[in-house]
Amino acid sequence: MHKTELDRIAIGLMVLFCTIWGVQQVAIKLASAGISPVWQAGLRSIGATVLVFAWARLRGVRLFAADGTLWAGILAGLLFAAEFAMIFLGLQYTTASRGVIFLYTAPFFVALGAVWLLPHEHLRRAQWTGMALAFCGVLLLFGEHLFTPADRAWVGDLMILLAAVFWAATTLTVKASALARASAEKTLLYQLAVSALALPLLSTIICIFVFKASFDAVPRSLIDAARIDGLSDLRILMRVMMPLAKPAIATNVILAFIWSWNNFLWPLIITRDESMQTLPLGLARFLSIHEDTTGALYAFCVMVLAPGIVVFLMAQKEFVRGLTSGATKG
Questions:
Q1: DSSP assignment of 84-139, as one string?
Q2: CATH superfamily ID and name for 204-330
Q3: DSSP per-residue codes, 173-203
Q4: Tell me: the pLDDT tens digits for 34-73?
Q5: Dist CA 39 CA 45 (whole Å)
């Protein structure tokens, strides 16, 4: 029987899960002192993937049936990874109470997106009112000093707000795609498994040093001049720092793509289904099955190497500038 309304058990479970979700923000703040935030998010996804997979197997849920959900699942997983990367990074700058306020704007983004993607699920006026009242309650509870942020707290607030957008995008992807017909376990496993692959790759420390070198190379006088002209810290970041950091951005994009594309060990540990395996794993499997097909082997190698080479050739000037940024003074 398909229920369209929440019963008492469902309401109680939602309250319990929201409580756990709120405690999570505090746990992230406590653990962030000893571990990279994005790596911490990756470990969370890895552990959750193992637990959800075990739960699904115990219940006999079919996880690997060809039901047309693969690409939608990968997209949902990437959005899920981006959401938690922003949450974990944002909480390095802002407080857990401020983070809750910005994170819980997600339902409003879902409601706005549903106007275009889910035409049969528009909210009624009473539902809009209830959602607004619930958000006002969160605002009153956690909104102390909301408009007087501490130094650089706005950076964390912006990241948490982006996390809310990614959370809404994940929800809309699930509702508007073939995932809506898949089991809850499979849908959740897509998000966890893909983020378990993606998040550890985002925590590569060399990317941080590339950005640091690029920002250090910007003259302090340029930043001071922008402040004299009345630009806020956010506008300085978006209009001064980011345009000058294009070589660093290109460098990180190229490095992240090549590392992810050529990675062998991590996908080998995480993936189990052949349809989810990457090309390097496919090349190893090809070699184990076909031993005397030299021509086909070379073709497979070219297919594996070509995307990385193409990406590098498209942005090689920016790549070189990004790596040498800050290397000389004067």
A1: HHHHHHHTTTS-HHHHHHHHTTHHHHHHHHHHHH-TT-PPPHHHHHHHHHHHHHHH
A2: MetI-like (1.10.3720.10)
A3: HHHHSGGGGS-HHHHHHHHHHHHHHHHHHHT
A4: 567 777 888 889 889 999 999 998 988 888 888 888 889 9
A5: 10
Residue 251 phi, psi dihedral angles, 5° rounding: -60, -45
Query: Is the sign of the CA dihedral 286, 289, 291, 294 positive or negative?
Result: negative
**Residue found under tokens 């496919």:** 282
Can you give the length of the chain in residues?
Answer: 330
pTM confidence score: 0.63
pLDDT over 80 at 288, yes or no: no
- Tens digit of each residue's pLDDT (9 = 90 or more) over 110-142: 887 887 787 777 667 777 777 777 777 666 655
pLDDT score, position 156: 80
Q: Which two tokens stand for residue 87?
A: 């949450």
Q: Are 107 and 170 in contact (CB under 8 A)?
A: no
What is the per-residue DSSP string for 252-288? HHHHHHHHHHH--HHHHHH--SGGG--HHHHHHHHHH
**Residues 191/111, Cβ–Cβ less than 8 Å:** no
* 62-81 exposure pattern, b = at least 16 Cβ within 10 A, e = fewer: ebeeeeebeebbbbbbbbbb
Residue 293 pLDDT more than 80?
Answer: no
Q: What percent of the chain has pLDDT over 90?
A: 10
* Domain segments of the chain as ranges: 1-202, 204-330
